[in-house]
Design goal:
Elements (H helix, E strand, L loop, with lengths): L2 E4 L9 E7 L6 E2 L4 E6 L4 E5 L4 E5 L5 E4 L3 E5 L1
Antiparallel strand pairs: 1-8, 2-4, 2-7, 3-6, 4-5, 6-8
Length: 76
């Protein structure tokens, strides 16, 4: 079973965010609730937590802007 890691919507007007950096390496084991990446919005920069435990497979590169709902990685 895989779980998508997406760009979350932090506020009503948020449409996109910048993936600043990954805090976990591709292929690493992550634990649900651990910090996965930093996301910058118009108002702040926040750490986004893993939605599940498993092996992280990164799909998107940092320093790019992605729309809310974009799948950035999967957890297997």
């Amino acid at each position: 079973m895989t779980v998508d890691v997406i760009v979350p919507q932090f506020g009503m007007g948020m449409a996109e965010g910048t993936l600043v950096q990954w805090l976990a390496a591709d292929g690493s084991e992550v634990t649900e609730g651990s910090a996965l990446y930093e996301l910058e919005t118009e108002k702040s920069t926040q750490e986004v937590e893993a939605p599940a435990s498993g092996r992280l497979r990164i799909l998107k590169e940092p320093n790019q802007v992605y729309e809310v709902g974009t799948v950035l990685a999967i957890i297997e």
